[in-house]
Specification:
about 575 residues; mainly beta; Jelly Rolls; 5 domains; six-stranded antiparallel sheet; five-stranded antiparallel sheet; about 0% helix; about 50% strand
């Protein structure tokens, strides 16, 4: 408030003489040039109550609250019949409900953008007070306050104040503007700044943050400042900031323009929990709870000795939450730790250790079993067990259709099965056996088909047929030299429509043990027909292969069978 107390220097500098219609008139040469920065009022003093003519004095006033009593308000003005005008143009922000309290002796009128809002305009002997409630729209508006004193005491007081009770003020503040954010990668701090809001009833600002891709905002702080420093999680995510203005009635504005900060990922993942170890084959099986955000896991191991002076070493990096240590030796004890690694390479602390000692186990199963058709049967190949500790590996067992076919030394990794039926498919598995007889689980199966021909024993040699006087047929032949011949099958054939048709005789002849026991067969004709017949003898191997089954040439003798009648 400027009480407008006059000084000689002020008057001398402000008043000049002008000639107007032959009269000397005092004028304020600075009136037109006076400028007052909003929200300071521009004040003009008039030597009349009609605000006519040139103001006697113009200055700036911070508030309207004067009491001149019965004296003149300024040098060069009368003590009665004078007027004072205050004007101010300012930004009211979002506007809203305002109160216009006045106190005056004598008259006062208040205008908003030229529209009268308060009108107390009469000569009074005591001070009159009044409050008028109005709504001021958002944005810039001009207030003009005209005060006059006719006679007697002169005092005036005026203000414009927001009405801030929640039941009255329902107008949200304006959205904060000028928001910006800077991020210091060294300190990890994000500084958000914004322009001061123009609300007259502003109470504070609220700063919010959300994760990019999320619609959920988290309130970080309430402040009266126009900046805020925050440390977002350094986890590689992008965070969005906004500011909202709050007025004294509790109304919250909409959010300012979103400002984003992309953080580097410096946050280590959580420590793996629930680490377990099980002693099994092919090694010690480790498992743990998966860690959210982990891209891989590092497994550490220490061989536990009496002195516990062995180093802890990294033994594996895996993507899943489990791993089998196939390099752990039997009869030794180990401790294990697991750490989680995220995609940015951040490493968690080590998990709680897990301790386990190994016992005696069966070897691992062979791998890569494959079967191939070859001329003399089915050839099988495989790879040794995956565990590197195979010093106690003794042999392999070959199974055909679940039945043991052969057991061979561990120095071999192939086997040819010759005891197969021509054109027949077989499924095989192979197991590993250690020196104390522990047998592994079966390998993955392999299927192969025996060759269609070529596995039948050769035709028998030296086949002879003899008809005895009593009508019996005796057949003899040489013992087959092939080791897999199991027995001999006897067939009788007769011609039907010019085609030889054979019927297998029920009787089979076993393979003699030595050449000193030539095989033979005797058939007693209980009823002869006098037909010409062929009697064939075929060697049959242990898999059932014979020349008859493939239609190949075989050994036979032709016999004219006697006709026997009762």
């Amino acid at each position: 408030m400027n009480p407008a107390r006059p000084t000689t220097a002020a008057v001398a500098g402000a008043v000049v003489l002008m000639t107007a219609a032959g009269l000397l008139v005092a004028a304020n040469s600075a009136s037109a040039a006076t400028s007052c920065a909003s929200p300071v009022y521009k004040r003009q003093f008039f030597a009349n109550t009609t605000f006519s003519g040139t103001p006697k004095k113009t200055d700036c006033d911070t508030a309207i609250d004067q009491n001149w009593g019965t004296a003149a308000p300024a040098s060069g003005l009368p003590a009665n019949n004078f007027g004072v005008r205050w004007t101010v143009t300012r930004d009211f922000g979002s506007g809203g409900p305002f109160a216009l309290p006045v106190s005056t002796q004598d008259g006062i009128r208040v205008y908003l953008d030229g529209t009268r809002k308060v009108d107390i305009w009469k000569n009074v002997s005591t001070t009159v007070t009044k409050t008028v409630n109005i709504t001021i729209p958002a944005g810039k508006h001009t207030l003009r306050i005209d005060y006059v004193n006719w006679t007697g005491t002169a005092n005036v007081k005026f203000a414009y104040t927001p009405r801030t009770t929640a039941t009255v003020d329902k107008v949200k503040p304006l959205t904060p503007t000028g928001s910006a954010v800077t991020y210091d990668t060294t300190t990890g701090k994000a500084k958000l700044t914004w322009a001061k809001n123009k609300e007259l009833d502003l109470a504070s600002y609220r700063v919010y943050r959300r994760l990019q891709g999320s619609t959920t905002w988290t309130k970080l702080t309430t402040t009266t400042a126009t900046s805020y420093t925050n440390t977002p999680p350094a986890n590689g995510d992008t965070y969005i900031y906004e500011v909202r203005a709050i007025d004294k009635a509790g109304n919250e504005s909409t959010g300012s323009a979103d400002r984003s900060v992309a953080t580097p990922d410096k946050t280590a993942p959580a420590v793996p929990t629930g680490v377990t170890a099980v002693d099994e084959q092919p090694g010690i099986a480790l498992a743990w709870n998966a860690v959210p955000g982990a891209a891989s896991y590092v497994v550490h191991r220490r061989w536990e000795t009496d002195g516990n002076d062995e180093p802890t070493v990294k033994v594996a990096t895996v993507a899943s939450a489990s791993w089998t240590d196939a390099t752990a030796r039997e009869y030794l004890s180990y401790s294990y730790w697991v750490t989680a690694v995220d995609s940015a390479g951040n490493l968690s602390a080590k998990s709680a250790p897990v301790f386990l000692g190994r016992g005696d186990h069966a070897p691992s199963a062979p791998t890569g079993l494959a079967g191939t058709t070859v001329a003399n049967g089915i050839a099988l190949t495989w790879r040794a067990p995956t565990t590197p500790f195979t010093e106690d590996l003794w042999s392999y067992r070959i199974y055909r259709k679940g039945r043991l076919v052969e057991q061979i030394r561990a120095t071999q990794s192939s086997f040819t099965d010759t005891e197969v039926r021509q054109g027949t498919a077989y499924a095989y598995t192979v197991t590993s056996v250690d020196i104390v007889g522990n047998e592994s689980v079966a390998s993955a199966p392999a299927t192969a088909t025996a060759p269609a021909t070529g596995l039948s024993p050769a035709p028998v040699a030296g086949l002879r047929g003899y008809l005895a006087p009593n009508g019996n047929l005796e057949l003899t032949w040489q013992r087959s030299s092939e080791e897999d011949v199991d027995h001999y099958a006897i067939y009788r054939g007769v011609q039907v429509d010019g085609v030889w048709q054979y019927v297998k005789w029920w009787y089979e002849v076993s393979q003699p043990w030595t050449d000193d026991e030539p095989p033979y067969y005797v058939h007693e004709f209980l009823e002869g027909q006098g037909e010409t017949a062929r009697w064939a003898v075929l060697a049959v191997d242990k898999a059932g292969n014979s020349l008859f089954s493939t239609g190949e040439d075989f050994s036979y003798v032709t016999v004219i069978e006697p006709e026997i009648t009762e």
